[in-house]
């Protein structure tokens, strides 16, 4: 039973990472710049 949960979790995480990479690759340059600026602000505010 634990093996099935672990396998499902691994597939889910892999799918999310691949979708995120595909979304990032499809973004325009100005959107990437805005996203990186936003993430820098979020990290700096901690």
How would you describe the overall organization of this protein?
The chain is mainly alpha-helical and 46 residues long. It has one domain (2-44). Helices cover 89% and strands 0% of the residues. It contains two helices and no strands. It has helices spanning 2-26, 29-44. The chain is elongated, with a radius of gyration of 16 Å. The termini are far apart. The mean pLDDT is 93.
Summarize the structure.
This protein has 46 residues and is mostly helical.
| Secondary structure tally, helices | 2
How much of the polypeptide forms β-strand, as a percent range?
A: under 5%
How many discrete structural domains? 1
Residues in helices, as a percent range: over 70%
- Main β-sheet, in a few words? none
Would you list the SSEs in sequence order as H and E?
HH
How far apart, in Å, are the first and last alpha carbons? 39 Å
The number of strands is 0
Structural class: mainly alpha
Overall geometry comes to elongated
Low-confidence stretches: none
The rounded Rg comes to 16 Å
Arithmetic mean pLDDT: 93
Topology:
Blueprint: H1 2-26, H2 29-44
List keywords for this structure.
46 residues
């Amino acid at each position: 039973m634990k093996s099935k949960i672990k396998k499902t979790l691994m597939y889910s995480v892999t799918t999310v990472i691949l979708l995120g990479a595909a979304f990032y690759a499809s973004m325009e340059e100005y959107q990437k710049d805005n996203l990186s600026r936003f993430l820098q602000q979020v990290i700096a505010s901690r």
